[in-house]
C-alpha cells in the first residue's frame, strides 16, 4: 500500500497521475418538462442533485405540441444558466426522439386530476398517454433504463408501463411516494423541534399511509424512537396522518398551484438514493413491484420501506406492524386490488378503444367496511402521490 505522504507528493508533483477519468454523460428524460414540476426539476438534475455532483447529464425534455413554445423557453433558460454538468438539451414533442437512448426517465406529464374526477376518470384519461410512452420506452430507451412515475394515478400507471414495455424489468419501474415520506419527516421534526436531517425511517405504506412507528430522531442523548419522544398516540394516528395526507390540498389552497418544488425535490431524492444508495441504517419509501412482503399481494405496485445499494432496491424485512398500521395497509391493498383485479381485461378493452371502464372493472364505491357505502369516506384516493 502506498503511504499517504507519498500519494500527497505525487498529487502535488504530477496531479494528472491520480486524476480520475471524468464520467460519461447519461441521458435523463423528463416528461411534462414545461409544467410546474418539470420547470422545477430540470435545473436540479442539471446541478447534480439527482445523480451526483460529478455526473454529467444530457437532458431530454418532452411535452405536448401546444407546450412547444414554453418548452423552448425552458431550454433557453437552461442554456443561459451555464450549468457545467449539463452537456446537452433535447426539447421535443416527439416521443421517439425524447426516449431515444435515455438511461433514466422521470414521467411527470399526464392528464391532471380535476376536482370532479374519480380515479376511474383519471385512469381513462392517462391510459392512452402511458401506453404510448411505454411503447417508446420499449423501443428506444437504453438497456436497464430506470423509470420513475410521478404523474397520477401512479401505481396503475406503473402497471401500464410494465404491461406494455415488457423489455423493462419490473424492478426498474417505480413510482413516487418520497414526497409523502419527506412530508412525514418534516412533520415529525416540527413536532420535536429538531432538524429534519436528524429524523429518519418513517414509512409510507401503499400510497398515502404515513407510519412513524419505526422512525427515530437524534437528540443530545443519542438516537431515540420518535414514538417515545412524542409520547402521543392520538397525534400519530390522527393529526400526523391527516396532515401528511392532506398536505397537497393545503398547498393548493395556499398557493393556487399544486406542489411543485417539493415534488421535484422528492423525485430527485428518490432517484439519487436508488442510484447512489441509501445511508447505512436508513431506509426510504418507494413505490415498487410487490414480492409479497408484509402480506401485500404479489404483482401490484405498492410503497414499501426500502434500502438501496449499487442501483438496486431491497424491501426492508421484519418490521413489526401494529393493528392500526395493519388496518390502513389492508385498506390500501384492498382498494388497489379492487382496481387491478381485472387489469388484464381493462388493458385489452382500452387498447381497442372501449371506454366502458366501469363495466369491465366492476367499479363500486368502497369504504373500510367493504364495497357498500360512498367512496368519499375513504378520504384521499389511494393512487394519489400527494401532488
Automatic annotation (TrEMBL):
<comment type="similarity">
    <text>Belongs to the LDH/MDH superfamily. MDH type 2 family.</text>
</comment>
<dbReference type="InterPro" id="IPR011274">
    <property type="entry name" value="Malate_DH_NAD-dep_euk"/>
</dbReference>
<keyword id="KW-0816">Tricarboxylic acid cycle</keyword>
<dbReference type="Pfam" id="PF00056">
    <property type="entry name" value="Ldh_1_N"/>
</dbReference>
<dbReference type="GO" id="GO:0030060">
    <property type="term" value="F:L-malate dehydrogenase (NAD+) activity"/>
</dbReference>
<dbReference type="InterPro" id="IPR015955">
    <property type="entry name" value="Lactate_DH/Glyco_Ohase_4_C"/>
</dbReference>
<dbReference type="InterPro" id="IPR036291">
    <property type="entry name" value="NAD(P)-bd_dom_sf"/>
</dbReference>
<dbReference type="InterPro" id="IPR022383">
    <property type="entry name" value="Lactate/malate_DH_C"/>
</dbReference>
<protein>
    <recommendedName>
        <fullName>Malate dehydrogenase</fullName>
        <ecNumber>1.1.1.37</ecNumber>
    </recommendedName>
</protein>
<feature type="domain" description="Lactate/malate dehydrogenase C-terminal">
    <location>
        <begin position="177"/>
        <end position="344"/>
    </location>
</feature>
<dbReference type="GO" id="GO:0006099">
    <property type="term" value="P:tricarboxylic acid cycle"/>
</dbReference>
<dbReference type="Pfam" id="PF02866">
    <property type="entry name" value="Ldh_1_C"/>
</dbReference>
<keyword id="KW-0520">NAD</keyword>
<feature type="domain" description="Lactate/malate dehydrogenase N-terminal">
    <location>
        <begin position="26"/>
        <end position="173"/>
    </location>
</feature>
<dbReference type="InterPro" id="IPR001236">
    <property type="entry name" value="Lactate/malate_DH_N"/>
</dbReference>
<dbReference type="InterPro" id="IPR001252">
    <property type="entry name" value="Malate_DH_AS"/>
</dbReference>
<keyword id="KW-0560">Oxidoreductase</keyword>
<dbReference type="InterPro" id="IPR010945">
    <property type="entry name" value="Malate_DH_type2"/>
</dbReference>
Amino acid at each position: 500500500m502506498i503511504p499517504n505522504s507519498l500519494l500527497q507528493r505525487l498529487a502535488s508533483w504530477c496531479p494528472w497521475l491520480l486524476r480520475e477519468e471524468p464520467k460519461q454523460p447519461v441521458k435523463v428524460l423528463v416528461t411534462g418538462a414545461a409544467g410546474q414540476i418539470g420547470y422545477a426539476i430540470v435545473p436540479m438534475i442539471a446541478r447534480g442533485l439527482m445523480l451526483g455532483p460529478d455526473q454529467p447529464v444530457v437532458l431530454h425534455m418532452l411535452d405536448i405540441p401546444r407546450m412547444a413554445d414554453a418548452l423552448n423557453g425552458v431550454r433557453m433558460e437552461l442554456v443561459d444558466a451555464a450549468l457545467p454538468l449539463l452537456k446537452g438539451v433535447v426539447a421535443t414533442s416527439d416521443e421517439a426522439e425524447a426516449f431515444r437512448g435515455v438511461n433514466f426517465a422521470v414521467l411527470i406529464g399526464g392528464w391532471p386530476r380535476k376536482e370532479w374526477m374519480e380515479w376511474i376518470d383519471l385512469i381513462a384519461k392517462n391510459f392512452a398517454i402511458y401506453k404510448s410512452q411505454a411503447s417508446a420506452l420499449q423501443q428506444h430507451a437504453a438497456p436497464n433504463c430506470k423509470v420513475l412515475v410521478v404523474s397520477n394515478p401512479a401505481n396503475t400507471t406503473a402497471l401500464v408501463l410494465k404491461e406494455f414495455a415488457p423489455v423493462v424489468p419490473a424492478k426498474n419501474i417505480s413510482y413516487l411516494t418520497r414526497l409523502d415520506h419527506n412530508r412525514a419527516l418534516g412533520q415529525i421534526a416540527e413536532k420535536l423541534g429538531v432538524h429534519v436531517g436528524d429524523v429518519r425511517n418513517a414509512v409510507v405504506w401503499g400510497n398515502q399511509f404515513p407510519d412513524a412507528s419505526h422512525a427515530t430522531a437524534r437528540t443530545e442523548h443519542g438516537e431515540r424512537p420518535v414514538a417515545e419522544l412524542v409520547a402521543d398516540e392520538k397525534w400519530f394516528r390522527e393529526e400526523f396522518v391527516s396532515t401528511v395526507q392532506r398536505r397537497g390540498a393545503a398547498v393548493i389552497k395556499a398557493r393556487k398551484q399544486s406542489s411543485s418544488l417539493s415534488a421535484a425535490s422528492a423525485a430527485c431524492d428518490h432517484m439519487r438514493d436508488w442510484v447512489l444508495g441509501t445511508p447505512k441504517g436508513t431506509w426510504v419509501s418507494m413505490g415498487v413491484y410487490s414480492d409479497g412482503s408484509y402480506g401485500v399481494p404479489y404483482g401490484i405496485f405498492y410503497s414499501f420501506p426500502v434500502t438501496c445499494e449499487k442501483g438496486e432496491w431491497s424491501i426492508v424485512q421484519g418490521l413489526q406492524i401494529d393493528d392500526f398500521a395493519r388496518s390502513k395497509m389492508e385498506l390500501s391493498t384492498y382498494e388497489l386490488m379492487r382496481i387491478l383485479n381485472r387489469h388484464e381485461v381493462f388493458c385489452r378493452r382500452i387498447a381497442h378503444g372501449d371506454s366502458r371502464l366501469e363495466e369491465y372493472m366492476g367499479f363500486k364505491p368502497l369504504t373500510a367496511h367493504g364495497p357498500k357505502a360512498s367512496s368519499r369516506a375513504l378520504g384521499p384516493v389511494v393512487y394519489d402521490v400527494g401532488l
